[in-house]
Amino acid sequence: MNRKIGMAGSVINAITVLLFAVFLLVHFTFGYFFVCIILAMSFVCMVSALEVECADDARAAGRTALAFSAIYATLIIIVYYTQCTTVLNEKLGEDAARILDYSHMGLMFNLDILGYGIMAVSTFFIGLTVKVKNKIDKALKILLIGHGLFFPGCLIMPMTGMFLGSNGSSGSGSMGGVIALEIWCLYFLPIGILAFLHFKKDD
User: Fold this and answer.
1) Which pTM value belongs to this model?
2) 118 Cβ contact partners less than 8 Å away, ≥ 6 residues apart
């Protein structure tokens, strides 16, 4: 059961990352909002299955990763459920839109960036627990730990206001934001694939 949950979480994670990249390029707003909700849920499943495999001397790292994955998922689900419901379905005033609409440099955008920073912390700690038995495990471990490097930028950059464009658009609404997100997708997609292969080899 543990490996089946890990396999399911990993493959769903990979699919949602791929869909997010495609939907972002074709400007399917509801699509990339919605898949982020599923991505967050699948990530928790993937991390939970990896945490089960932790050796005794890596339990603290595994539990830390699991806790941070839950924080990440909570933030991201709140952000994107808000976009899929309140933002897309209601006519918001200017002040409400500035806070709730992801396309503005407001609260939801900042929570989104923070959420993915927390995700990076989770991948770093779960990466420390991966026991390397083959090339797949080695590559997975390196990518998970390396993904932790996204945390400082995700934490600090929103504080500088650098995402706010001259036209008031930010994040995925600017070309720079799209490029940055596509690069992240290229980095993170192999993690889901490698995690699936990691669980499958022992199934």
Assistant:
1) 0.91
2) 68, 71, 72, 75, 151
**Overall size of the chain counted in residues:** 203
Cβ partners under 8 Å of residue 171, min gap 6? 102, 103, 105, 109, 112, 113, 163, 177
Q: How far apart are CA 148 and CA 145, in angstroms?
A: 5
Whether the per-residue pLDDT at 183 is higher than 80: the answer is yes
Q: Which residue has the higher pLDDT, 170 or 139?
A: 139
- Reported for 169-174, long-range contacts at CB under 8 A and 24+ positions apart, including other chains, are 169/103, 169/104, 170/103, 170/104, 170/105, 170/109, 171/102, 171/103, 171/105, 171/109, 171/112, 171/113, 172/24, 172/32, 172/102, 172/103, 173/103
| Residue spans of beta strands (DSSP E) within 80-181 | none
Cα–Cα distance measured from residue 68 to residue 58, given in angstroms and rounded to the nearest whole number: 16
Instruction: Give residue-wise pLDDT tens across range 2-32.
Output: 999 999 999 999 999 999 999 999 999 999 9
